[in-house]
């Protein structure tokens, strides 16, 4: 029997491959090509347009850091918006906190449906939580038209291609800023710094133009190959990012979070970047 392999198509001059035990699901949604693959090393894997989005085995490295860093830095978040995040991993982590409302806005209902059916461990029941409101619509239009305000806004988009392109522009983030409360925070994925330096540089420049406090912080996701994953940070206040370690530790204990990547010590350290990544702030 011939072995089956998935070859990622994100870069024209760099390839990573995953051995595929079985193709669980494949479809063309109105927006993109979607596949869910079963692999020996990473379990079930979600791909969109030939690019790995998340896997059962390493998703926590991404979802925990994109969620707990802003929420615990804020300290009293009650309303959270998620733009994208159709696999449900961010929604799951948000709902581990004592929040009142989580609004998830995903443009592609096919991603939500496929992940609920074939990757249920990622959402772990989050879509059925009464605090969750899931909207299948354009995140940019939601931010433009909504009157709601949020303590934390998490932009969990794909790379800047296809339906995600508008989520990497100044107009979108200007609308995000209007929807943040006084100490509100927005975070977003900003690519692997070694391979996608322009994405990180663009994020930092955009955040600096629009927010009183802007930064990049990092996580490490094994299937996002060739380097450290950078996450963007913007806030109307400098106070959340300056939260002392002792305060983060207290909030973490009070939240009773059992985490596999995030810890208060990691939180305090994740804004310290290696020089080659710090240089991306200067473009």
CATH architecture of the largest domain: 3-Layer(aba) Sandwich
Low-pLDDT regions? none
Q: So, the CATH homologous superfamily of the largest domain?
A: Vaccinia Virus protein VP39
Number of strands: 13
User: How confident overall, as mean pLDDT?
Assistant: 94
| The CATH class of the largest domain | Alpha Beta
> Helix share of residues?
25-40%
**Radius of gyration in whole Å, from Cα?**
18 Å
Q: Looking at the chains present, what oligomeric state does this protein adopt? A: single chain
Order of helices and strands: EEEEEEHEHEHHEHEHEHEEHHH
Number of helices: 10
Strand order of the largest sheet: 9-8-7-10-11-13-12
How far is the first residue's CA from the last residue's CA?
Answer: 49 Å
Structure description:
This protein is an alpha/beta fold and 283 residues long. The chain has 2 domains: 4-55, Spermidine Synthase, Chain: A, domain 2; 59-282, 3-Layer(aba) Sandwich (Rossmann fold), CATH 3.40.50. It is 31% helix and 30% strand. The chain has 10 helices and 13 strands. The chain has helices at residues 59-74, 89-94, 109-118, 120-123, 139-145, 170-179, 197-210, 245-255, 264-269, 275-278, and strands at residues 4-7, 17-20, 22-28, 33-39, 43-48, 51-55, 79-84, 101-106, 132-136, 150-156, 180-192, 213-219, 229-235. The chain has a 7-stranded mixed β-sheet, sandwiched between helices. A hairpin with a 4-residue loop joins strand 3 and strand 4. The chain is globular, with a radius of gyration of 18 Å. The termini are far apart.
Topology overview:
Elements: E1 4-7, E2 17-20, E3 22-28, E4 33-39, E5 43-48, E6 51-55, H1 59-74, E7 79-84, H2 89-94, E8 101-106, H3 109-118, H4 120-123, E9 132-136, H5 139-145, E10 150-156, H6 170-179, E11 180-192, H7 197-210, E12 213-219, E13 229-235, H8 245-255, H9 264-269, H10 275-278
Parallel strand pairs: 7-8, 7-10, 8-9, 10-11
Antiparallel strand pairs: 1-2, 3-4, 4-5, 5-6, 11-13, 12-13
């Amino acid at each position: 029997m011939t072995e089956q392999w998935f070859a990622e198509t994100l870069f024209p001059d760099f390839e990573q491959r995953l051995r595929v035990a079985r193709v669980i699901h494949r479809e063309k949604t109105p927006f993109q090509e979607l596949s869910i693959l079963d692999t020996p090393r990473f379990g079930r894997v979600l791909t969109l347009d030939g690019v790995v989005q998340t896997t059962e085995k390493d998703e926590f490295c991404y979802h925990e850091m994109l969620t707990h860093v802003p929420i615990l830095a804020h300290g009293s978040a009650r309303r959270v918006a998620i733009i994208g995040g159709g696999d449900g991993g961010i929604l799951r982590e948000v709902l581990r906190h004592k929040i009142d409302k989580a609004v998830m806005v995903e443009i592609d209902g096919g991603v939500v449906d496929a992940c609920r059916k074939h990757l249920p461990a990622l959402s772990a029941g989050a879509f059925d939580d009464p605090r969750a409101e899931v909207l299948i619509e354009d995140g940019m239009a939601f931010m433009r038209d909504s009157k709601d305000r949020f303590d934390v806004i998490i932009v969990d988009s794909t790379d800047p291609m296809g339906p995600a392109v508008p989520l990497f522009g100044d107009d979108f983030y200007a609308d995000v800023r209007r929807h943040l409360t006084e100490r509100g925070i927005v975070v977003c994925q900003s690519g692997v710094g070694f391979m996608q330096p322009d994405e990180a540089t663009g994020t930092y420049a955009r955040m600096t133009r629009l927010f009183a406090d802007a930064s990049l912080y990092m996580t490490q996701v094994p299937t996002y190959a060739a380097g450290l994953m950078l996450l963007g940070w913007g806030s109307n206040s400098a106070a959340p990012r300056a939260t002392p370690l002792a305060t983060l530790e207290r909030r973490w204990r009070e939240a009773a979070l059992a985490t596999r990547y995030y810890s208060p010590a990691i939180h305090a350290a994740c804004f310290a970047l290696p020089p080659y990544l710090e240089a991306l702030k200067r473009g």
